[in-house]
Amino acid sequence: MIAIASIEKFSSQSKRWKLLESELAIPTYDAAYATVKSCIYIFGGCVSAKVGVYLKDIQCFDASTETCTKLLYSLPFTQCLGSACTDKNNVYVVNPNGKFVHINVNTKSLSVLYESKSAHLMSFATAFYKHSVFIMGGYDTSGDNYNVRRFDTRNKKITSAKEMKLPFTSKSNHLFGAVVSISRQFLDRPYVQPEDTATKRRQPQTSRTSVFP
């Protein structure tokens, strides 16, 4: 694979892609990424097809100004084929070797929350929900992994989220996965969870989204 620096923008109105004049500060691929407000943060990634040529740099693309910069602070280790998720101004980066990093983009503070001694999971998706980072799917030395794990950011423990099951079959692509959050203002109509249907007559119906319905 070849690391590229180009950035493209898709217009939902024209249904077309546009190649922007701005580019990544460092060409990369297989990086972890997360969005906070108008900014897309790119964590690490690969710069060469050679094994081990990874980055620990953090790049920030501001969609409001369409500019990309390399941040002055970086990850404490190189990162590739990991995943990241957000909770307001907090970003959680999960490395395939089991390291969990917390970054506050406002204060620019960075800390390692947890280090696993046995994790070698790659190409998984992550999402933040109620003080926990959920690690979904991926693959390891034994093959595809369809488990969902929960990392509690308060007690720094990882447990199996047995109540959650991935809806994917073995035919789905395990190399790529993403979880996104949609703001209420972009919803076409109110969303009511199944458990709310019995009480919706007594309470005003409001727009809500949930990563885990």
Figure out the total of helices.
0
Low-confidence stretches: 196-202, 204-213
Number of strands: 16
Largest sheet: 4 strands, antiparallel
Structural domain tally: 2
Distance between the termini: 37 Å
- Can you give the mean pLDDT? 81
Strand content: 35-45%
Residue share in helices?
under 10%
Q: Which sequence of strands runs across the widest sheet?
A: 3-4-5-6
Given the C-alpha coordinates, what overall shape results?
globular
One letter per element, helices H and strands E, the order comes to EEEEEEEEEEEEEEEE
| Radius of gyration based on Cα positions | 19 Å
Q: What structural class do you assign from the helix and strand content?
A: mainly beta
Write up what this structure looks like:
This protein is 0% helix and 44% strand. It is mainly β. It folds into two domains: 1-80, no CATH class; 92-187, no CATH class. The strands form five sheets. It has a four-stranded antiparallel sheet with strand order 3-4-5-6, with no helix packed on it. A four-stranded antiparallel sheet has the order 7-8-9-10, with no helix packed on it.
